[in-house]
Design a protein that fits this description.
By secondary structure, the protein is of the alpha+beta class. 41% of the residues lie in helices and 25% in strands. The longest helix has 39 residues, at 411-449.
C-alpha cells in the first residue's frame, strides 16, 4: 500500500488512483472510495485489487474488451508522460487521465473526472463547481430539492439528486427546460416577475403549486437566492414540499371550528343541566345522574348499564332502599340483561329499539316472564320500571333504568327522566369529542417536538430545551456538556440499500445511543444522521467521564446491525463541548461541539474529541 506521501490527494474532490504496471491499485483517495463503493474498501493486507475491477467491474483489463486504456498507453509508449481517454464506468461517464509516476517509473496516477454529454453549460457548472466543498455539500448532496436557474431565460441549468427524486425527472429530461415545466400554473410574465423580485432583493420566498412528472400536484415553498459563479449571476432555487403541512393546517382549522361548535353546545347544555357543569368523567356523570333521579323519589332504584357486545352490563347505581347495594352486586354478577328474544327485559328493549320503555305494573306485563329480571324487582319491592336508551355519536351504547313502586313513572316523571337521559347522551357525545380532541392535541404536540422516524425529541425540542438549560446553567454557574454525534458510513448504506433500509438502521441506531446514555441525559435527533445529547453533569468527575460515555456510544454503534437479513456496519464521530463554569452561551457551545466533531472526523472518524471552554 502507499504511504502517507499520497494523503494530500484525500483533499481533492475527484477520484485519484495510484496503479502499478500490472494494474494493481496501491492507493485510492477518499473521493475514489466514495465514488466506487464497497469494491474499493478493502483491508490493508488485501492483494490484487485491480483498477479495472474497481472502475468497470471487469474481470480483466479494459483494453482486452476493445477499450482504450490510458495506463496501457503509457506502458507501451515510454516517450509520453500523460494519456487521456473517456470511459463509461459502472457509475457514470468519466474523463480518465493517467500520469507517469516519476518517482519510480513503474506506477501511474489516474484521475477520474466525471463528465456528461449534455450541454457545454452543464459541463461548465459541474467541472467548475463540483470541485468545491461548499457546492458539493450544499447543492449536490443537499436533502432539499434544488435547481440552478438562468434568470434571463428561466432555464434550468442544473438539478441536485433530491430534486430528481422529488420531481421524477432525470437530469437529461429537465436540464435545458424552463421552470414552467414544473410550474405550469405561472405565465412566463409571472415567472420573470418572480425572478426580478429576487434579483432586486425585494422578495426571496414564494409559494406555488408544482407538477411532478407523474402529474401529481404538490404545494411548495420556494426560496430563491442570487449566486455568483465565475462572475456569472445565477439563481439558486430551493424547494420545500409543504403539501402535508398545508393539509395539516386545514385539518387543524376544521378541528378548531368543530371544537368551537362543541364548546357552544357544551355551554348551552351546562346552563340547562347545572349538575353536569365542569364534569368530564363519564363515570362521575353516570353516578350524579343516578343520584339526581333517585332523589326525585326516595323509593327509586336507578342504575346505568352499558353494552359490552353481549349484554347490558350494569356499571353504577343509586338508591335509598335498604339492601339495594346487595341487589346491585347480585344483578351485576348475574348479567340478567342479555339478549333474549323470547323473554326480553325493558332495558334490552329500550337499547334495541332506541325508544323509552315504561312499565307501571310489572306483574301485569310480559316482562314478568324473565325470572332474572323478576328477582331484583321483587328484592327491591318494586312494581314499576322505566328504561331509556343512551347513545353517543348516533349509536346506542347503554340504558338508564329506574325501578320504583306501582305507577311511579307517570307521564311527567317519565318525560323528566327521558330528558335527563337525552341530556346525558349529549354529554357522552361531548365527552367523546373532548377525549378525541385531547388525544389529537397530544398527538399533534408530540409530532411537533419528536422525530417521526425514531420517536426521539427533534431539533425544535432541542432548541427549546437547551435555552432552558442554558438559563439555569448561567444562573447557578453550573458545568454544561453537549455531545454532537454524526454517523460515519450511513450515506453509503442509504445509497447502497435504499432509504427504507437506511430508515430502519437509523431507528436501531437511535435505540443504541439511547441505551448507552444515563437516565438523566437527554437525546435529540437534529436531522439526517446527526444526533445531539445534553449530558447531565451533576455526577461528572471530569471530562474523561464524557469521553467514556462517548466511547460506549461508539462501541454500541459499531456493533453489526441486522437489517432485512443483512449485517450493516457504521461508525460515529462525536464532538464534546464541556463548559466547566457555565459562562459560555449555548450557541457558542454548539459551535464548539460542531468543531470538535469535525476534528474527530478529520482525525480518522469513529472516535470522539473533547474540547473544554
Amino acid at each position: 500500500m502507499a504511504d502517507g506521501r499520497y494523503s494530500l490527494f484525500d483533499k481533492l474532490f475527484t477520484p485519484i488512483l495510484l496503479i502499478k504496471d500490472n494494474f494493481d491499485v496501491i492507493f485510492l483517495n477518499n473521493d475514489a472510495k466514495d465514488a466506487y463503493g464497497a469494491e474499493s474498501r478493502r483491508p490493508e493486507n488485501a492483494q490484487n485489487l485491480k483498477c479495472f475491477a474497481i472502475s468497470h467491474g471487469y474481470d480483466r483489463p479494459c483494453y482486452e474488451y476493445g477499450e482504450e486504456c490510458p495506463v496501457k498507453n503509457l506502458i507501451d509508449d515510454e516517450s509520453i508522460d500523460k494519456s487521456s481517454v473517456n470511459h463509461i464506468h459502472k457509475n457514470g461517464y468519466y474523463k480518465v487521465e493517467a500520469y507517469r509516476n516519476k518517482e519510480d517509473g513503474i506506477s501511474f496516477f489516474e484521475s477520474h473526472a466525471r463528465i456528461s454529454d449534455l450541454k457545454v453549460k452543464i459541463d461548465y457548472l459541474e467541472k467548475e463547481m463540483r470541485n468545491t466543498q461548499i457546492f458539493k455539500n450544499f447543492f449536490y448532496d443537499n436533502s432539499y430539492a434544488m435547481f440552478i436557474l438562468e434568470p434571463d431565460t428561466s432555464e434550468i441549468m442544473d438539478i441536485n439528486s433530491s430534486a430528481i427524486k422529488f420531481y421524477g425527472y432525470s437530469k437529461e429530461e429537465i436540464i435545458g427546460k424552463t421552470i414552467e415545466t414544473i410550474n405550469p400554473f405561472l405565465s412566463k410574465e409571472a415567472v420573470f416577475n418572480t425572478l426580478d423580485l429576487t434579483l432586486s432583493g425585494k422578495q426571496k420566498v414564494f409559494y406555488y403549486k408544482h407538477r411532478l412528472k407523474d402529474g401529481a400536484i404538490r404545494d411548495v415553498q420556494i426560496s430563491l437566492t442570487v449566486i455568483d459563479i465565475q462572475g456569472r449571476r445565477l439563481v439558486l432555487d430551493t424547494v420545500l414540499d409543504i403539501t402535508e403541512k398545508i393539509q395539516q393546517e386545514k385539518e387543524l382549522k376544521e378541528q378548531k371550528a368543530k371544537a368551537e361548535e362543541v364548546n357552544l353546545y357544551y355551554r348551552a347544555l351546562a346552563e340547562a343541566n347545572e349538575f353536569m357543569i365542569g364534569k368530564h368523567d363519564r363515570n362521575v356523570v353516570f353516578k350524579q345522574i343516578c343520584e339526581i333521579i333517585s332523589g326525585i323519589n326516595g323509593s327509586f332504584f336507578v342504575w346505568i348499564g352499558l353494552w359490552n357486545g353481549m349484554n347490558i352490563q350494569p356499571v353504577t347505581y343509586s338508591s335509598a332502599i335498604k339492601g339495594s347495594d346487595k341487589v346491585f352486586e347480585r344483578i351485576t354478577g348475574l348479567n340478567p340483561f342479555e339478549i333474549d328474544d323470547e323473554y326480553p327485559t325493558p332495558a334490552m328493549d329500550a337499547f334495541r329499539t332506541g325508544k323509552p320503555v315504561i312499565v307501571n305494573n310489572y306483574k301485569a306485563s310480559t316482562y314478568e316472564n324473565n325470572r332474572n329480571n323478576v328477582y331484583y324487582m321483587e328484592a327491591l319491592g318494586a312494581e314499576a320500571t322505566a328504561a331509556f336508551p343512551l347513545s353517543a355519536d348516533g349509536k346506542n351504547v347503554g340504558v338508564l333504568t329506574a325501578c320504583a313502586g306501582k305507577d311511579a313513572f307517570m307521564p311527567d316523571i317519565a318525560a323528566l327522566l327521558h330528558t335527563l337521559a337525552n341530556n346525558m347522551s349529549d354529554k357522552l357525545y361531548l365527552i367523546s369529542l373532548e377525549d378525541a380532541e385531547k388525544e389529537n392535541k397530544r398527538i399533534i404536540e408530540h409530532l411537533a417536538y419528536h422525530d417521526i422516524l425514531t420517536g426521539v425529541p427533534n431539533r425544535a425540542h432541542f432548541l427549546n430545551r437547551i435555552k432552558s438549560v442554558d438559563s439555569r446553567v448561567k444562573r447557578h454557574k453550573l458545568p454544561f456538556a453537549l455531545l454532537l454525534i454524526d454517523l460515519d458510513g450511513f450515506k453509503h448504506i442509504n445509497d447502497t440499500y435504499g432509504h427504507d433500509t437506511g430508515d430502519k438502521l437509523l431507528i436501531e441506531t437511535a435505540k443504541r445511543i439511547k441505551g448507552s446514555l444515563r437516565d438523566e441525559d437527554e437525546m435529540f435527533r437534529m436531522g439526517g444522521d446527526e444526533f445531539t445529547v445534553i449530558a447531565d453533569t451533576s455526577k461528572l468527575k471530569s471530562g474523561e467521564d464524557l469521553v467514556a460515555m462517548c466511547d460506549r456510544i461508539i462501541d454500541k454503534i459499531n456493533e453489526p446491525a441486522s437489517i432485512e437479513g443483512k449485517n450493516m456496519h457504521i461508525g460515529a464521530s462525536i464532538g464534546i463541548a464541556f463548559d466547566l463554569d457555565g459562562k459560555t452561551g449555548f450557541e457558542d457551545i454548539m459551535k464548539i461541539a460542531d468543531a470538535a466533531m469535525y476534528e474527530a472526523k478529520n482525525g480518522g472518524r469513529n472516535r470522539c474529541e473533547l474540547r473544554y471552554r
